[in-house]
Amino acid sequence: MKLYLKNPVILMLFCLMAGMFITVSFVETPLKFQVEGITLSTALGLGKLMFGISTKIQALFLILILIFMTISQNHYTKFDFTIIIVLLSILVLEQFWMLPVLDERADLISSGKPLAPTPLHDCFIYAETSKAIILILAVVLQFKTQPNENRSY
């Protein structure tokens, strides 16, 4: 079985997006809390900045991917486009609901106000984990077998 690439530009964009996203969400975020001398307020401020920028860059990547997929749409299925819609939906939820609420909580915590834990932080973690899994799936789906390949079993 030979694998063929649907579109190298889209694969590159997915890989760049996944690399940036995984670095920010799963490497930089936990590590900043381990830096000696960094205050909680500084770490929370850095998190607000990084996630705010990261979601905007991810949206840009997805828009570019959608444009290139539309240009070469004969290589893509409805499922491929559905993946983009799901990723965009998660980003919209994060950008306009989760992050504003979590940013407000970070500001309150930074100002010294004690707050009870919120399940929204867990929901954000689940959303980020879901995006990582979906991005890996999207990268894998950039490869296909030749449709007219003669197969004998």
Oligomer: single chain
Arithmetic mean of pLDDT:
93
Rg of Cα set: 19 Å
Distance N to C terminus: 12 Å
- Helix tally equals 4
Strand portion: under 5%
Low-confidence stretches: none
Shape: elongated
Structural class label: mainly alpha
Summarize the structure.
This protein has helices at residues 8-32, 40-71, 78-110, 119-140, and strands at residues 3-5, 143-145. It is mostly helical.
Task: Please describe what this structure looks like.
The chain is mainly alpha-helical and 153 residues long. It has helices spanning 8-32, 40-71, 78-110, 119-140, and strands spanning 3-5, 143-145. The longest helix has 33 residues, at 78-110. The radius of gyration is 19 Å and the shape is elongated.
What order do the helices and strands come in, and which of them pair?
Blueprint: E1 3-5, H1 8-32, H2 40-71, H3 78-110, H4 119-140, E2 143-145
Helix pairs in contact: 1-2, 1-4, 2-3, 3-4
Which keywords apply here?
153 residues, mainly alpha, two-stranded antiparallel sheet, 4 helices, 2 strands, elongated
